[in-house]
C-alpha cells in the first residue's frame, strides 16, 4: 500500500492549484480556498491535491467525512444507490415507500438516549434554525395550553407583519465563542469571529460567557470550577433579566465549542446547565453538528455527561452526512407544515449513513477514536514539554483534539510548514489548531503527525 | 408504452400508504405527507405510489424535478458519477480540481443576462439568506467606502453581541404574499400563510402590498395598472419611512408569487420596481427558486421583463437541482468566509444539472413550456366558461399555471377527486390550484388533465 505516508512533490499550494484558483476567481471570491483536490486519487486518510501531493488529512472536509475518502463500502453503496439521486423527493410530502425502513436503519440506530423523534434537514444551519422553531412552538404551546391560538386570534394577523403577538419577542440564549451556523437566525446565536457576523442584522438575544478554562482540565479543577460557577450564575441572571423583554425560550450549546476555539467545559458544567433549563422551563438544545458521530470517543459527545434528563433536542450534520435533529416527544409539533421545506434533507444521505453505521459498529470505531485520542494527546503533551513556546493547552476528547500555538501570530506559519511536510490540519479560534480526522485515524497515523509536528517545531 | 395514461387501482391514499403513514408517525409529525412513492416504477410525468396507482404528476416534488422521474440521461449520469457522492467536499475550501470546469459547464451556461458571478448553496432558503447577506455587505461597503471598518473599530466588538453598529439595523423590504424560505431571516421576508410564521420571532422589516390583479391581465389593463401604481407608491413611501429606523438595504421579489397564490404582476410593474431600487441605491433580488429553469417559457421568468439594468442578485434552487445565486460584480464580497459554510452546495447537483441543460437545449424545452402553456391556459379558459362556479382567474406563463377554485371551501374536495382520477396537482394561497409539471409536459398530457378536470367539475 503506497498510502502509508505523505508525499509532497511541489510547493503547496502548487502550480496547478494556483492556475485553478485564478480560473475560479473569475466567478466568485476564492480567499477561503485552501486546495483543489484530486478525489479520485485520494484514499481514506490521504488527500491527493491537484498537484499530486499526497497529504495526511487531519481535517477531512471540515470534519465531514466519517470514513475518509473513497471508502470501498461507501463507494459501493453510492454506485448501487445512484438511481435514488435521479428522483430527489420533497421528503416532507412525497417520501419513498422505503422511507420508514430507511430512517429505522440509519438515524434511529444512532438515536441519543431518550430521544425517539427525528427529522432530516439538508445542513447544520437549517437543523439549528428548525430546532429553534420547534422550541418556540413548544414554548408558545406551553404558554397558551394549545398548539395554535383560537380561530380569529390577532396572532394570525400580526405574524404576517412580523409583529407580536404572532411573531413573539422570544429569544435563544447562546454563548460567547459558540458557532451554530450562518443563516440569520443561527448566526444570531453564533459568536465565533467578527468576520462571521459583521454587517449582518441580528436578533437582540442574550449571550452568556462560556467558561475560559485552564488545560489540562484535571490539573486545574478548583479554579475551573469557579470559572464555571461564574458562567452558570450569569446564565441564571440573564434568564431572569430577559423575562420581561424577550423571554428566553431555550438555550443552545456545543459540547465542545469548535469554530470558537475548541473550548471545553466539564461534564458537571453541562449537567448544571441542563438543570437550569429544566428548572426555568426553557428548552435545551445540544448542537452536535461537529461533535456527533463517534469522533469524541462516544457516539454523541453529550453521552459523557451522565445527564438525568436528556437534552430536549440534539442537532446534527457533517459526519452524519444528513443534517437534522433528534427530539423528545414533548417537542413534536402538532400541525403539518410548521417544520417543513421543499427537500427536507435527502434520502441518499441516509442510505450512505446506514453503511457508515455498519462500518462504525463492525470495526468498533467509537472505541478506536477514544483510544487513538489518548495516544495523540499524550504525544502532543510530550511535544508541549519540549516546545512550550510553540504548543500549549493540549485538549481533546477522543480524536476531537486541539492545541494552542503559544506565540501570537505563529499559527499560520506553523500550519503552512506542516502542510508543506504533507500534514493538513484545521484551525479554530484565534490561535488554535484542531484535528478532525476520519474515524480510521490510528496510532500509526498519529506517529506520522507527531513526527512532522516535532520536525516543524524544530524549524521554528 | 404503458405510461400514457393514469391508472388508479385503490382509493388514494391506499392501504399501503396508510400503513406507511402510521409507521412514520411514530418518529415525526406526518400531516404534510400526501403519498408514499414507488420511485423505481415512476417515469417522467407519471408517479407511481406505494399502492401501485399511476398518477399524472403535475406537481413533480413541489416543482423540483425538471425532467421528471427516471429520465434515462439523468439516471445514466447519476450512475456514472456516483463516486462523487462518496467524497462530499467542503466546497468553499477544498473543491475538486474539476470545479471550475464543472461550474462553467453547468451554472454559467444558464447565467441570467448581466450576471457573471455565481455561488452554490444547498437549498433555496440558504440561497436567499446568503443573498441578503451579500446585499448587506454591499450596502455597508457603500456606506463606509471600504469592505471592512478600520482595525479596532467598535463594529468588530458590537457585532459579537448582536448590537449595532456591527450588527446594523438594516432591513429587507418584501411583499405581502411573498415566500422566500423558512429559516429565520428568509422567514422574515415570507408572508404566505400564518402557519408558516406563527410563533417564530421575526425581524421588524417593512412589507409592501403586492398588486392584487384581475385576470386575464390583458382584459383588465387599466384597473390593474392603477393597482400596481398604488403598490409602487407604497414601496417608495416605505423606503422613505424606514430611512431613520431600519434603512432598507434592498428588496426581494418573486416574478410570480408562488406559495402565496400564484400572484402575477405586469412586466411594467417589475421594471418600475427595479428602477425604484436603482434610484434609491438599494439592492434588487429576484427570487427565481420556483420560477427558474425554463418552466415559465423563458430560462428565467425575469427574462420577460425587458429590464434596462439586470437584477443585482438572482437566487435559485428546485429545478436547478442546486441552490445558489447569480450576482453582478458589484456584489462580490472581498473577504473570504463572509459567504461561507461547510458544504456550500454539492458538486453532484452540478454534474446532473449539466445534463439537464443539455436535454433542455437539445429538445428545446423552453419553447415547449411556452407552447404547451398556451394550450393549457386556453383549455382551462374553456372549462372556466363551462364551470364558472368552480374555476376562475386562470393565469400562467409557460407551464407555470394556476386557477382559483371559485367557491370557498371547495378546493380540497376538487383536488382530492382529481387525485382519485389519477391527476396530482398542487395548491397555493387560500383558494388556488397550481400546475408545476416537468418540462416534458406536452399537449397530450394536457388533454388528459383537461378531461379529468372536466369530469371532476361535472361531479361537483
Ligand atoms: S439552509 Fe440548510 S441546506 Fe439550505
Automatic annotation (TrEMBL), chains A, B:
<keyword id="KW-0663">Pyridoxal phosphate</keyword>
<dbReference type="InterPro" id="IPR015424">
    <property type="entry name" value="PyrdxlP-dep_Trfase"/>
</dbReference>
<keyword id="KW-0808">Transferase</keyword>
<dbReference type="InterPro" id="IPR005814">
    <property type="entry name" value="Aminotrans_3"/>
</dbReference>
<keyword id="KW-0032">Aminotransferase</keyword>
<dbReference type="Pfam" id="PF00202">
    <property type="entry name" value="Aminotran_3"/>
</dbReference>
<dbReference type="InterPro" id="IPR015422">
    <property type="entry name" value="PyrdxlP-dep_Trfase_small"/>
</dbReference>
<protein>
    <recommendedName>
        <fullName>4-aminobutyrate aminotransferase, mitochondrial</fullName>
        <ecNumber>2.6.1.19</ecNumber>
        <ecNumber>2.6.1.22</ecNumber>
    </recommendedName>
</protein>
<dbReference type="InterPro" id="IPR004631">
    <property type="entry name" value="4NH2But_aminotransferase_euk"/>
</dbReference>
<dbReference type="InterPro" id="IPR015421">
    <property type="entry name" value="PyrdxlP-dep_Trfase_major"/>
</dbReference>
<comment type="similarity">
    <text>Belongs to the class-III pyridoxal-phosphate-dependent aminotransferase family.</text>
</comment>
<dbReference type="InterPro" id="IPR049704">
    <property type="entry name" value="Aminotrans_3_PPA_site"/>
</dbReference>
<comment type="function">
    <text>Catalyzes the conversion of gamma-aminobutyrate and L-beta-aminoisobutyrate to succinate semialdehyde and methylmalonate semialdehyde, respectively. Can also convert delta-aminovalerate and beta-alanine.</text>
</comment>
